[in-house]
Amino acid sequence: MAGALEGVHVLDCSQIIAGPVCSSLLADMGADVVKVEPIEGEPWRLQSEFMPKESRPFINQNRGKRGIALDLKRPEAAPIREALIRWADVLVTNYRPGVPEALGVDYDSARAIRPDIIYCANTAFGTRGPDAHRRGYDIVAQAMSGLVTSNGVIENGIPRIVQFAPADALTGAYMAWAVSAALYHREKTGEGQAIDTSLLLSALNLQAGFKEIVAMDEEPRELKRSNLAAARARGDSIAEIYAERRAAMPELLGNIYYRIYQTKDGNIAVGCLGPGPRARFRRALGVHDRRYDPDFDPAKESVAEVGQALVAEVEQKMRERTTAEWLAHFDANDVAAGPLRFVDELWDDPQVQANGYIAEYEHTLLGPMRGGAPVVSMSATPTRVQRASPALGEHNDEVLGQLGFPPEQIAQWREGGVIR
């Protein structure tokens, strides 16, 4: 059976993470994706190379694609660029505003060649405003969006970033989602369109506080902002700012319900959201949370002190049994819990194996590979790993030949340094 996007042609002119993740997801659904890289290779290919022109980050984000190496800045590349756009149903980019225009892969240039093209662009901070033309990566979007400070973790006096590039990864998924919707719209109307995404907006939407801001009363929001401005004016450290903000949310100081604990032989995560799950957790541990008593008066008792005492009690209890013992106990009491693991431990995990979450495929240079299966499975239009990531310029001759260029023209471009 064919994938849902079988027959869809995607031209991927993106780099690093978000754009490449998008087109790789589309490839898993059957799309034919051609990735265009500079002659020397895109930056992610050259980051932490384990062999010349190959890196694990690049392999991970570019699975399922054919690849060509093309210098889009050269005037001689124009016929190739135009043929690729004419071939494409979808064009994916993630440059700063102004760069696509310089390379001839902006929306206006693309739709002049292919009027019904679906153009999906990602930028760091959006296409308008004072930050539009600034360089930006996931770490910068995390900082500017408040995502870093929302996790409340400090390392050597500095807020700790989320390491797995959440804004990039989520944006890639959002882009693929939007492209799929745009393809459906075009199927109904024949109309293409431009899609605009940004790391900043994705990072904002990861945070409940951003979604709640409209519903918040203006007074407490302004108080938070004025307190923050005053703290910065005093030169407070980030630890002091965090402490002040936590003091205004004493319930955080007594969190026993949604956290990771140390056990007798490891660590275990517990997640209890809502009154029912929290009551089951307390029963399973045999603890009493006075903050849930009808007669508890936070005006007379310190919520923080009660919470801190409860945390100490539960932490001590959790250290008395092994992780396996706690898992069995929590399962028996219908409490959501799971052991803390490293990703290296999951390749042969029974749960991962039972669900087919590992795929096997071949890389041209590296041979047999194992990697995560497509993130969704579909009964009527199966997803699958189309191929491994391409070696640099691996499919130049194949793709250009399919576009109708004769071998002698391809050889001339290669000799002139237009292609690799």
What can you see in these coordinates?
The structure is a single chain. With 420 residues, the protein is an alpha/beta fold. Among the domains are: 9-152 and 159-205 and 390-415, Rossmann fold (3-Layer(aba) Sandwich); 216-248, no CATH class. Helices cover 41% and strands 14% of the residues. The protein contains 18 helices and 13 strands. The protein has helices at 18-28, 56-61, 78-87, 99-103, 107-113, 138-145, 147-150, 166-189, 199-205, 208-212, 218-234, 238-247, 275-285, 303-318, 323-332, 350-354, 396-402, 407-415, and strands spanning 9-12, 32-37, 65-69, 90-93, 118-123, 154-155, 158-159, 193-198, 258-262, 267-271, 337-339, 358-363, 367-372. The strands form four sheets. It has a six-stranded parallel β-sheet, with helices on both faces. The chain has a three-stranded antiparallel β-sheet with strand order 9-10-11, covered by helices on one side.
